[in-house]
Amino acid sequence: MARWETITGELREAIIRGEIAPGTTLPRETDLEERYGASRTTVRRAVEELEAEGLVEKVRRRGTVVRRSPARTRLTRSRRVYRDDIGYFFDRTAQGWRALETPTITRVPAPADVARLLGVEPGGDVTARSRIMGEPDTGEATQVAVSYLSPDAVAELPVLAEPDTGPGGIYDRMEEAGHSPLEWEEAISARMPSPEEARLLALAPGVPVLRIVRTTRTPGGRVLEVNATVLSAERFEIGYAIDRDTSATP
Amino acid sequence: MARWETITGELREAIIRGEIAPGTTLPRETDLEERYGASRTTVRRAVEELEAEGLVEKVRRRGTVVRRSPARTRLTRSRRVYRDDIGYFFDRTAQGWRALETPTITRVPAPADVARLLGVEPGGDVTARSRIMGEPDTGEATQVAVSYLSPDAVAELPVLAEPDTGPGGIYDRMEEAGHSPLEWEEAISARMPSPEEARLLALAPGVPVLRIVRTTRTPGGRVLEVNATVLSAERFEIGYAIDRDTSATP
DNA sequence: CAGTGGTCTAGACCACAAC
DNA sequence: TTGTGGTCTAGACCACTGA
């Protein structure tokens, strides 16, 4: 085992056992050098590992602070989609967030999974409607939502590529155009953020993002839109209840 | 901007644009030193960043390889729990995996969120049933599932702390003891793996894990068990369909 | 404004695995 | 076998920010 791994291990154990409490700092780097008889590089390598695991955060002039995990906000995914006068919504708990600005319309290379769903070649440009959602009061960003539009859908309904799509948004426009009732499904995964996502969402190092991909289909099964929402995995979890299939219980 | 950030940025862009194709290698470290006129430390710092983002993987004697993301397997969460002769199951697609060994019973400090659900003090020891699930053929581990048992439940039903809990497993034992029908809910989040999880699941650096936490309650709302399943976020996604609440549509 | 972490250099030897 | 990345040293100067 490398020297730095030994140091990482001892520090990690002390943190998990609570000997170094959340909010307090690890010994400063020069102290760790002395304690372990290692060079600064080695000590820093050891602490970098803890940072990548999301256990500590380095703060200039203060030291390496043991992170306290914030309580996660639960998003309760509706297993039914609801709508009100404004439009469709997919989450009973999302009412507190608002788009912080008008959607940005760009043409971007579709991510591999989105390209597959939209049926365009990987790396091909598609129209994207990007929104940053957050707390209206503080301006704090909590989610980055990008809606990738099928080229066919944009050709049929150019309004989908306008910043303002009118009452009810893109889904109402699609349904008015004869694609009613739309069908949706969602998939949840996670990955490390891009540097831009980390900046927008103010993510600490070592914090992954949850990615919710919602696919919109016509009743015939044609994909009109893929919405990818990215949010801090440290601050959010996605919950749902499970119904018992009583008919099958012996 | 630090010199290493510049290097990271250029390499990242080349990777995303496909100029350095998945499966091929970045220039070797000595070449990067020369190209950027930087020391080895600086070059390595730049590449470490790409590794932490999950974009590249370092392979000895071969070089720094651009990773190709494996296709994700979709777990379709049932919104209903089913059961057959074996017991309850929560996923229509999980049939291919089997426990690779008998459950390990240990007493471990409950993770903070689990402690909260079980109503024990943070850091307090609870009984844990740990299972490694995987491909029966290859022995490859795909999921680590730990079932944390409420102290009350173990006191009432000591069999829950036995490796073999009999036909139907712990849920059948609980229901036989009068807690029928059990109720479940799930929450999905993500985090970076512990070193042990990374080893067990053979995770590359920069790959987070999905964590599915399922809570088992009595009809009266008492929490009997919390099951935490951890799986590679790169190899799995969790999907579900969304039903339309037709009654509410105008 | 001083002390913390951040960046960078130049050089050395090691360990592993693909060739 | 040997070239790749892995580890480690000793030392220097910088930049930010909280005491």
Automatic annotation (TrEMBL), chains A, B:
<keyword id="KW-0238">DNA-binding</keyword>
<dbReference type="Pfam" id="PF07702">
    <property type="entry name" value="UTRA"/>
</dbReference>
<keyword id="KW-0804">Transcription</keyword>
<dbReference type="GO" id="GO:0003700">
    <property type="term" value="F:DNA-binding transcription factor activity"/>
</dbReference>
<dbReference type="Pfam" id="PF00392">
    <property type="entry name" value="GntR"/>
</dbReference>
<feature type="domain" description="HTH gntR-type">
    <location>
        <begin position="1"/>
        <end position="69"/>
    </location>
</feature>
<dbReference type="InterPro" id="IPR028978">
    <property type="entry name" value="Chorismate_lyase_/UTRA_dom_sf"/>
</dbReference>
<dbReference type="InterPro" id="IPR050679">
    <property type="entry name" value="Bact_HTH_transcr_reg"/>
</dbReference>
<dbReference type="InterPro" id="IPR036388">
    <property type="entry name" value="WH-like_DNA-bd_sf"/>
</dbReference>
<dbReference type="InterPro" id="IPR011663">
    <property type="entry name" value="UTRA"/>
</dbReference>
<protein>
    <submittedName>
        <fullName>GntR family transcriptional regulator</fullName>
    </submittedName>
</protein>
<dbReference type="GO" id="GO:0003677">
    <property type="term" value="F:DNA binding"/>
</dbReference>
<dbReference type="GO" id="GO:0045892">
    <property type="term" value="P:negative regulation of DNA-templated transcription"/>
</dbReference>
<dbReference type="InterPro" id="IPR000524">
    <property type="entry name" value="Tscrpt_reg_HTH_GntR"/>
</dbReference>
<keyword id="KW-0805">Transcription regulation</keyword>
<dbReference type="InterPro" id="IPR036390">
    <property type="entry name" value="WH_DNA-bd_sf"/>
</dbReference>
